[in-house]
Amino acid sequence: MINKEKENLQTDKENSDEIEVKVDKKILKEIEEIETKNKRDLTGLWSIPIIVASIGLFIFHMYTGWFGAYFSLIQRSIHFMFILTLTFSLFARGKKTPRDKIQFYDLIFIGISIILCYYILTNYKELVWRAGAANPMDVFLGVVLVLLTLEATRRAVGLPLMLVAAFFLLYALVFGPYMPGRFSHGTFSIKRVAYYLY
């Protein structure tokens, strides 16, 4: 009788292990689908700029990690230029977007990202001297960069994080006076928020 109970326990354990393996595989498959739903699989000529940008980002961070970082505006703009370029290259707009090549509008987003970061690189001294006194060009470029960042966040991480970021932008711009207690504040202008984030 004791041997029979041991056999039953062994069989139950084997069955539960099989169920766990099946459940684990199912969960892993669901996670993989979520993680790769917008990811592009670029080959051929499309992969060369991605490889170059990835190696460039690696070398930049290794160099600044070893020899010291640049001035913060320069460091952030170079990092951001690489990250936005890679995000718009590697993540498609949606599920129905082709995965084998970069779409024309993504190339436009990449170009705008590079121009915005180049503007910071070439005008960082003026940006520092004008701290708090943004001109219309700074505000416009800041708004565009925030919108590009929200779109890159949606593609790479997902809609929930983008919505959280958008909520806090609206909190700064619109909802501040309507919040209770310590969460209440006077609204900030688009100029102030865009310049601060830019």
Automatic annotation (TrEMBL):
Record keyword Transmembrane present: yes
Keyword Transmembrane belongs to the record: yes
Transmembrane segments: 44-63, 69-92, 104-121, 127-150, 157-179
Alphabetical keyword list: Membrane, Transmembrane, Transmembrane helix
PANTHER family: BLL3936 PROTEIN
Annotated protein name in UniProt: TRAP C4-dicarboxylate transport system permease DctM subunit domain-containing protein
Native organism taxonomy: unclassified sequences, metagenomes, ecological metagenomes
